[in-house]
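User: Could you check the structure of this?
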Amino acid sequence: MAERRAERRRRTARGALAAAASAVVAVGTVVGLVSALDRDRAEADEARPTVSGSPSLRPLPAVPTPSPTSNSPSPSKSSKPKPKPKPKPKKTAPARPKPSSAPPAASGLYRYGDSQVLEWVRANRSDPRRPLIESRIANRPAAVWFADYAPATITARVRAVTSAGARAGQVPVLVPYAVPDRDCGGHSEGGAPDLDAYGDWIERFARGLGSREVIVILEPDALSQTECLSKSRQADRYEALAHAGRTLKSANPRARVYYDAGHSAWNPPGTQAARLRAAGAASAASSDGVFTNVSNFHRTSDETAYARKVLAAMGGPSDLGAVIDTSRNGNGAPPDGEWCDPDGRTLGRSPTLRTGEPRIDAYLWVKLPGESDGCKGEPGTFTADYAYELAD
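Assistant: Sure, the predicted structure tokens are below.
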């Protein structure tokens, strides 16, 4: 009996020791887990970058793409992966051309916007003659005449025309017409009071020429019509015209100055050439050549032949040329020689700087069609009936 009680006490003691050992193991496991967690936290904290302020949450690790298994079917030819498209090159805007500082090349002859015919067209829109006059005369470039002796305003008036032509990139045609004893006292008499006054007027005229290309028709009839002048006065006129040409060319080296050669039915080529030489027309310092047929009606073919004969007789540089007034020579001159607004005339070739003829620099409308010679209206004034007759 006593031995049995002793055995039970020993078993109880061994159970208590075992339970205590299990408790120690359990506590140690918990402590180890806590220590491990603490170490993990500590190690994790040591691995984090130093930040300022509150750190952001770390992103989740990327999910790995599963590798194909042996059960996956092998790709067929039709299921080959499509090649990746090549990236399209970026489109770049084309570089803009640098603006040119060079002046625009002249594209043709300048049409003056304040001509008498244009004024008539604007004021007579309902006139049945208006469409024909507008299309065949008003819309064509023609010369601008400066026929009144007004020294105070001549520079500004010339500059207004040359500036407008420069803005348009076109060539204006100017006619200075103020030489003393103009037209020998005929329909177009007038001009400066004397040659000194004329010299001053032409200098003022030259100041308005600008620096672009311009054509100057210098004093129509001044060399063809001299019978009213004495020999000494003729010589003075030649000298005055030579000075005028030099003044114009000096003021604007791009100005093309042409001298009066009359027309094919007036003076013989040799006679006219001698007058032209005396007036400086054979010198490149004052002249670019001659003009013919201004305010007249002779055919272009006759004027071309005549102008070449005059140039040959003049001598001078080989690049001297001629311009021909074709404004009213479509039917040629009347057989009776009438020159003042004769009936039966018509418009000639359109104005152009490209004639295709050697030594013929231009066909110009110097006398604007419809402006009277003095018989169908006041000299130089626009007459609608006469314009319509020429345009019809």
